[in-house]
Amino acid sequence: MDMTALAHRQRRASHAAATAGLRVLLWWLGHGLVLAARCSAALRSQITRGLTVEISADDGPARHWDFDAQRRRVATSAGRAEAPALAVRFPSSGHALRDLTARDAIDAIMRDRIDGTVRVEGNHLLLMWFRGLLRTVVPIGGAGPARRALPGAYVAHDPAANGVEKIVIEPAVRQLDPRWTGGWNARTKLWIVRGTNGEPLREP
Q: Which helix (H) or strand (E) covers residue 133, if one does?
């Protein structure tokens, strides 16, 4: 077997493996999200719109998710959707696997969209929302940094602290000083304050 034929067989084997790998990944994400929506109240609370999301590759593998806002459920099917609110379409299965499993998956997809190699059709903001849902099934991409308190946070008044300005601490009161006309004039413009106190409000 000459080198050209060997290289061709290797490319075919690599393409077949990538196609099979993407089908398995999309199947797992599809049915995993369906199961998670049945078991997780936190995930169901994020399903507030009826829409369809699709992920597909030009060499065959494709899957879409149908979100039902009324029932707070999700269904999935293989193949492309008719009119998805968001569709992420890759040129190949290998490209899809590389972007979807990257540590910075969203950044990788958007970089490739700018380069013209990946097509993101529909509402781009849904991509971040959808990725958050998928991460409840499998940790695709890197997680954000752990939350921690910032060092040196100013959480209590320190009279000894040095600063360019002073913090004036006024005593707590239940009502504005009647002599403070400016404060009372400003209060008349705060409808939320007047309304919660039962004061009459003019029509907007």
A: helix 125-134
Query: Dmax of the chain from CA atoms?
Result: 99
pLDDT of residue 105: 87
Which tokens in the block code for residue 31? 């049915």
Distance CA(5)–CA(171), nearest Å, equals 86
Sole residue written with tokens 């404060």: 183
Confirm if 74 and 65 have CB atoms less than 8 A apart: yes
Distances (CA, A) of 71 to 37, 49, 59, 136: 10, 10, 34, 19
Q: In order along the chain (204 residues), what is the average pLDDT of each group of 10 residues?
A: 65 85 94 92 89 95 94 94 95 94 88 94 91 79 66 72 69 84 84 69 55
Rg (CA), the chain: 28
CA 60, 79, 33, 121 dihedral sign is: positive
Cβ burial 176-188 (10 Å sphere, 16+ → b, else e) = eeeeeeeeeeeee
Report phi then psi at 86, rounded to 5. Answer: -145, 130
19 phi and psi angles, rounded to 5 deg: -65, -45
> What pairing do the DSSP bridges indicate for beta strands 51-57 and 86-90?
parallel
- Give the span between the Cα atoms of 181 and 192, in whole angstroms: 19
87 near 121, Cβ under 8 Å?
A: yes
